[in-house]
Amino acid sequence: MALANKDSRILIVGGGGTIGSSTALHLARRGYKDVRLLDIFQNPSLNSAGNDNNKMAGDDSAGIWGQLGTEAWKIWTTDPVFKDHAHNTGRLDLTSKPEREERLRTRYQGIVDEGRGAGIEWVEGKEQIVARAPHLAHADLTGWKGLFVKNGGWVAARNALNSVGHELRRLGVKSSFGSSGTFKDLILGSDGKTVKGIRTVDATEWYCDLVVFAAGAWSPALLDLEGQCETKGWGYAHLRLTPEEAKKLKGMATTYNHELGFIMEPEEGTLELKIVNEFAGYTHLQKVRPFGLKKDVLMSVPRAHAIHPTDTITTESLEAIKNLIKLWLPDLVDRPLFKTAMCWCTDTVDMNWLMCEHPKYKGLVVATGDSGQTFKMFPVVGKQVADLIEGTLPEERKNLWRWRPGAGDNGTARGGEKAKDLSEVEGWRNDPVVVRSKL
């Protein structure tokens, strides 16, 4: 059954981010006439994990995620809103660990079995890897193996978000930002269950027929999700290249190693190379009271760099980034690092989206649980939300992204050690946090 029609008033909380703006795009393209974005920042929201130089992307999965990845990459490379921001450099997903190798081989075989084997290769050893990634010529690749994805590479994330923002304005999507776009609580009907709108931190009341709650990493701290999502942060840094160095790395395959981290082609014009180390992420535990709870709870909440620009990254994260440079790009080992910051996402336990109508509140759709894979699906994630609203989302997808507290890991969760809290590690500096001002 449809949750709204084309004349319905629809509010999107977190509408300046990845899922929110993608949802607005698909609704507007389908002819919905009254869609409004709510966010603390203008699109592209500075609070969004997608507001970044670049993100990995590509057709590199099997099953439902493979269907989405194939569709997404086609749109990335053909749709006028997206195509200028996609870079088909190829992508390497490598490992030297048996457990990770088993997962990669399973994924590889799944893609082949689906008839898409022409777009992917299994690579082993230094000769095969360096043939596709010359920048690793000086790296110790003993025991390394994995996937080379032909249809993929990276996307200019911030530019793509901005492009969608321009298209939303052209299509007549409304917006409210700042204090009048910052979520405080839901407005409920007399039954205590039917959502009538949103109240913001400056007491503005926005009434509507449907709310789409797409608040990204802030979702669990603002709305009771019954423990289905956990917000985590990852450190990253940049180094500046000379024009000659950037030219040498132009077209390089995006390179990911589950134990070390990832790098990708420097964005043209900036000469900046982003480096991210890979690990379980950090939590930032604080007492908060999400809407729907009657008492404070301890949970991880983000620390937006846009609001706290003096925050640093941890010593161990910084050292891991330096180690990745030493192993992969030794010629740049002494280059100063800058633009260090934390990127915040929210993971579900099984690494699948949480995308469904909230079981306690009629007229509230939850669309969150990024789990580190949403930006590559940016062109199609909003289509899933729109299909859910119209009652046409396939049952298999509805089941995968259903409300599922306590469902547990189905084998797709991030591997590695348990996340540490920032209070337990050295090097991270910050100023006092006020949780409710984050969205």
Protein described:
Mean pLDDT is 93; it is low at 431-439. A hairpin with a 3-residue loop joins strand 15 and strand 16 (261-263). The strands form six sheets. Strands 6-7-5-15-16-17-14-21 form an eight-stranded mixed beta sheet, with helices on both faces. Strands 9-2-1-13-23-22 form a six-stranded mixed beta sheet, with helices on one face. It has ten helices and 24 strands. It is an alpha/beta fold and 439 residues long. It has one domain (9-424): 2-Layer Sandwich (D-Amino Acid Oxidase, Chain A, domain 2). Helix 1 packs parallel to helix 5 (157-170). It has helices spanning 18-29, 63-78, 98-113, 125-132, 157-170, 219-222, 243-249, 315-328, 378-390, 395-400; strands at 9-13, 34-39, 55-58, 86-87, 91-95, 120-124, 145-149, 152-155, 174-177, 183-188, 195-200, 205-207, 210-213, 229-240, 254-257, 261-263, 272-277, 282-283, 285-288, 297-300, 337-348, 354-357, 364-368, 420-421. The two termini are 31 Å apart.
